[in-house]
């Protein structure tokens, strides 16, 4: 037997340890791991000596080609691949009509899935979708079975914004989602608290960037998380808390996880582990997102809870906007979200491993293995033979400063600009080399839609 590719000489990072081994790829799959002498001959051999071979990152929280991001699947997937992300999960929106909407009329979740699949035809990397509910409309429950049949096994709900749902309806959704064994994905901020503070700042003409994070306080995030998890646990519904930013919210999640471990999972995002609200004084509204950047102690809390297992995943909440769209006056005229796809793995590696001495297995668990397991991506986030060869050759010793001029995203800035980070040298998606020496060598459209299973959650 001759395989397609052997990656030799590197240190292979597994979720539970490091291994000096080679890895054999045939077609789209990993077929064997071992010493080079034990593995079959290959058509191509890649020498990764002195480098790490990582699992490709699985980013389960991105916004692409809709009202919350100008990045297309082409631009975003290029950014992702250059940064070592091999699969991402976007949102399929139930269209609504409103000030923040790009839609002229309402539509269904299934139509939202079809809409995003059409937009994703040029994706360089693999992708999946969460269904996103935007209206208090019981008819959405009739779509759950078909949504699952199409490989979408999670639903997203918001407690804030014009498309936020009432607690009463969220409670109903949890009950129906539990019946179908879906994962409920929650954006939690108490809408009334944030709206009242925002209106106060408008009256007082407090439009400077420093007031933005004060308009969405940490306790509003914690309050809404408490309400949502309470309802989810009463309904017996699996709960995934997205973009946890602060100690208060993480403590709420931890409190409930103690008694409901198999029912609750949560994430933070790269930016909430490395940046704080002092950045608004330095770069004004470039880091404006919701929930906002918090305090240095909240950065510390994210690592404490990642280490303890309260937080399972590090994602990006990527949104593609330009500097001109972000730098407005007053802040309430601005756009939420920042780009991170191209930088997440290198930046989180720099912070977690280089600066804080966390392990490489910790890195791949939080960026790849855990998100894949939590969301039913059976062939992703693993080195098991027979699963997808989604791999990254990463050089932690060859560092380069982050330069926004190199962005593949439409975003022309980075909140990480100037930070020295390790280099993604090669990225493989399903066995095919798509990034080589920092250059895109794969074909647009290589990425495919990944139908997800109903996941199994366990200790």
Summarize the structure in short.
By secondary structure, the protein is α/β, with parallel strands linked by helices. 30% of the residues lie in helices and 23% in strands.
Explain what you see.
By secondary structure, the protein is an alpha/beta fold. Helices cover 30% and strands 23% of the residues. It is globular.
Domain module tally:
2
Question: Which value, in Å, is the CA radius of gyration?
Answer: 21 Å
CATH topology group of the largest domain: TIM Barrel
Distance between the first and last residues' Cα: 38 Å
**Which stretches are poorly predicted, pLDDT < 50 over at least 5 residues?**
none
Given the C-alpha coordinates, what overall shape results?
globular
Total helices: the number is 13
CATH superfamily of the largest domain: Metal-dependent hydrolases
How is the largest sheet built, in terms of strand order? 8-9-10-11-12-13-14-15
Estimate the strand proportion: 15-25%
Q: Based on the coordinates given, report the CATH architecture of the largest domain.
A: Alpha-Beta Barrel
Largest sheet: 8 strands, parallel
Helix content: 25-40%
At the first level of CATH, what is the class of the largest domain? Answer: Alpha Beta
Number of strands: 19
Structural class: alpha/beta
**Residue-averaged pLDDT:** 97
Which features characterize this protein?
459 residues; alpha/beta; Urease, subunit C, domain 1; TIM Barrel; seven-stranded mixed beta sheet; 19 strands
Topology:
Elements lengths: L1 E7 L2 E4 L2 E4 L1 E5 L2 E6 L6 E7 L4 E4 L1 E3 L13 H10 L2 E9 L15 H11 L6 E7 L11 H6 L4 E5 L8 H14 L2 E5 L3 H13 L14 H18 L2 E4 L5 H11 L6 E6 H5 L4 H5 L12 H13 L4 E3 L7 H4 L17 H12 L4 H15 L16 E11 L18 E10 L2 E5 L2 E2 L19
């Amino acid at each position: 037997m001759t395989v397609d590719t052997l990656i030799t000489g590197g240190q292979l990072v597994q979720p539970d340890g490091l291994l000096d081994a080679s890895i054999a790829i045939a077609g789209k799959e990993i077929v064997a791991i071992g010493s080079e002498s034990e593995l079959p001959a290959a058509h191509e051999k890649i020498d990764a000596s002195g480098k790490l071979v990582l699992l490709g990152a699985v980013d389960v929280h991105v916004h692409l080609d809709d009202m919350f991001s100008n990045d297309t699947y082409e631009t975003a997937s290029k950014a992702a691949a250059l940064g070592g992300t091999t699969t991402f999960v976007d949102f399929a929106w139930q269209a609504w009509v409103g000030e923040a909407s790009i839609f002229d009329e309402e539509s269904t979740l299934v139509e939202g899935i079809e809409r995003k699949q059409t937009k994703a035809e040029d994706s360089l990397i693999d992708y999946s979708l969460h269904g996103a509910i935007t209206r208090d409309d019981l008819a959405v429950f009739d779509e759950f079975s078909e949504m699952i049949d199409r490989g979408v096994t999670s639903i997203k709900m918001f407690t804030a914004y014009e498309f936020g749902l009432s607690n009463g309806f969220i409670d109903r959704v949890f009950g129906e989602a539990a019946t179908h064994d879906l994962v409920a994905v929650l954006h939690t901020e108490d809408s009334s608290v944030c709206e009242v503070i925002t209106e106060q700042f408008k009256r007082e003409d407090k439009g400077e960037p420093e007031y933005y994070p004060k308009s969405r306080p940490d306790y509003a995030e914690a309050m809404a998380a408490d309400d949502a998890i309470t309802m989810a646990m009463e309904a017996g519904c699996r709960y995934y808390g997205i973009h946890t930013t602060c100690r208060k919210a993480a403590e709420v999640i931890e409190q409930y996880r103690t008694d409901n471990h198999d029912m609750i999972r949560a994430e933070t995002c790269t930016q909430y582990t490395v940046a704080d609200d002092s950045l608004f004084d330095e770069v004004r509204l470039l880091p404006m997102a919701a929930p906002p950047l918090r305090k240095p102690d909240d950065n510390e809390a994210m690592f404490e809870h990642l280490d303890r297992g309260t937080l399972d995943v590090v994602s990006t909440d990527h949104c593609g906007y330009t500097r001109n769209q972000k730098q407005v006056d007053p802040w309430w005229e601005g756009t939420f979200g920042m780009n991170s796809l191209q930088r997440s793995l290198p930046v989180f590696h720099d912070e977690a491993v280089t600066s804080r001495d966390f392990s490489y297995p910790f890195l791949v668990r939080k960026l790849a293995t855990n998100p894949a397991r939590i969301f039913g991506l059976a062939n992703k986030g693993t080195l098991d033979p027979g699963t997808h060869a989604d791999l990254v050759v990463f050089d932690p010793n060859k560092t380069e400063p982050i330069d926004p001029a190199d962005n593949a995203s439409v975003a022309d800035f980075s909140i990480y600009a100037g930070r020295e980070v390790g280099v993604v040298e090669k990225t493989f998606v399903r066995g095919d080399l798509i990034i080589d020496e920092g250059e895109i060598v794969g074909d647009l459209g290589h990425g495919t839609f990944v139908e997800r299973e109903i996941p199994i959650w366990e200790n």
